[in-house]
Amino acid sequence: MSFQISGLSQAMLDNLGNLGFTEPTPIQQQALPPVLAGQDVIAMARTGSGKTAAFGIGLVEKLDVRRFAVQGLVLCPTRELADQVARAIRELARSRHNVKVLTLCGGTPIGPQIGSLSHGAHIVVGTPGRVKDHLDKGTLTLDRLQTLVLDEADRMLDMGFEEAVNAIVARSPERRQTLLFSATWPEHVRQLSERYQQTPVSVTVEAGAEASALAIREVFYEVPEGQAQKALAGLLSTQQPSSCLVFCATKQQCDDVVSFLTQQGFGAAALHGDMDQKDRDQVLILFANQSCPILVATDVAARGLDIDDLPLVVNMEPARSPETHTHRIGRTGRAGNQGVAVTFFSPSGAHKIARLEQVRGHGIEPLDASDLVSATPAPWRPARVTLCIAGGRKEKVRPGDILGALTGEAGLPGGVVGKITIQDYQSFVAVDSAVADKALKRLEQGRIKGRRFRVRALGPGL
């Protein structure tokens, strides 16, 4: 075990070993020592760099578990990121007994959150708007707060959360540790640091070095005006990736691209801010389960996605800034996997490519997209189908119960069962497409926890 950083308890080291942490990433190596020492930290690192553990380990290690009060608060720009961060912190908290982590986000009823808060919590992870709502109602207090974390601070400010963040900080103790993590360091993030932090330790992990280490291969295609959707269909037909994340500039463009791909027979779904939270959650589960291989999203909606094995990222047009471009392509080539990042641009978008060349200090040689535009669409069947079970945590359903229902008594082999996700009132299980019908019948006719639950198959075209 080489995850050796001064200040970590043996219990945390043992837990990290169980979680598969073999050695610290660059951001963890540089940020954890000052975090554990109680210093303020401003850190810039791209998504996938391991920054959640960089602050999550510190939050858990510094807890006084006997004091049932909010000692750590993590603010995130989206519910998806908040859910991801909360899950990661719960895993890190296995090194301690009885650590309670609550998620407070908009898009869900506030009543159950109030009930959970009434029983106390050690760490809260949430979006600024909903956290502020609870502070205004008096259902959340920060009197005992020790550490405040602003995660993806640049995106939080881009989304207009500055006023809410200011209100939350105003109700926090002046003597606290403030950790600020961001993918980019624009001027307004630096101003935020100046207002909220005391002599912070500055940590930067260069995106270029990481991208090289993570083996991202970039390709640029010059596409005639109005032909980007055809080029995308041609690219997907040629590559046939297990999963692909497509970035669009607007919500309408997302819907248009999904409509076009669906007409061509591809399994695709949109992810943007106009969707109901329930629909967004379901789309993310299908994408993570490889039941919907193509996710078409805006930058804001895709913030916080955590898919390690994502072989292909496509930009329908160049990003609005080089920083956003870097953040987009960083979604692929993670966790030691190879990745390809493709950017389409028309003559009208050439100025954005020129800006990217200026920042990088070298030219970009685009490829001709004519073969892609003229290719015959060749959609493929998703690797897995996701089954939705109308029972979850509230009915005491656990992953082992679902796995047992599928594989017990000469049932399906365990290797055809993929990710299992348990929510409050429903559960999701991914199964290989070849056995989806058999798995559906087995769950419909069998019992889970001694009960029968309604089951349905999910995915594009189902």
Number of strands: 18
Largest sheet: 7 strands, parallel
Q: Helical proportion? A: 25-40%
Domains, number: 3
CATH class division of the largest domain: Alpha Beta
Gyration radius (Cα, Å) is: 23 Å
Structural topology:
Elements: H1 10-18, H2 26-36, E1 41-44, H3 51-61, E2 72-75, H4 79-92, E3 101-104, H5 110-118, E4 123-126, H6 128-137, E5 147-150, H7 153-158, H8 162-170, E6 177-182, H9 187-196, E7 201-204, H10 207-213, E8 216-222, H11 228-239, E9 244-247, H12 251-263, E10 268-271, H13 277-288, E11 294-297, H14 299-302, E12 312-315, H15 322-329, E13 339-345, H16 350-360, E14 367-368, H17 370-374, E15 384-389, H18 399-407, E16 417-422, E17 427-432, H19 436-445, E18 455-458
Parallel strand pairs: 1-6, 1-7, 2-4, 2-5, 3-4, 5-6, 8-13, 8-14, 9-11, 9-12, 10-11, 12-13
Antiparallel strand pairs: 15-17, 15-18, 16-17
Helix pairs in contact: 2-3, 3-4, 6-8
Report on this model:
One of its GO terms (cellular component) is cytosol. Residues 1-29 form the DEAD-box RNA helicase Q domain. GO terms for molecular function: ATP binding; hydrolase activity; nucleic acid binding; RNA helicase activity. Keywords: ATP-binding, Helicase, Hydrolase, Nucleotide-binding. By secondary structure, the chain is α/β, with parallel strands linked by helices. The protein has three domains: 10-205, P-loop containing nucleotide triphosphate hydrolases (Rossmann fold, 3-Layer(aba) Sandwich), CATH 3.40.50.300; 210-374, P-loop containing nucleotide triphosphate hydrolases (Rossmann fold); 384-458, Alpha-Beta Plaits (2-Layer Sandwich), CATH 3.30.70. Helix content is 39%, strand content 18%. Helix 2 (26-36) packs parallel to helix 3 (51-61).
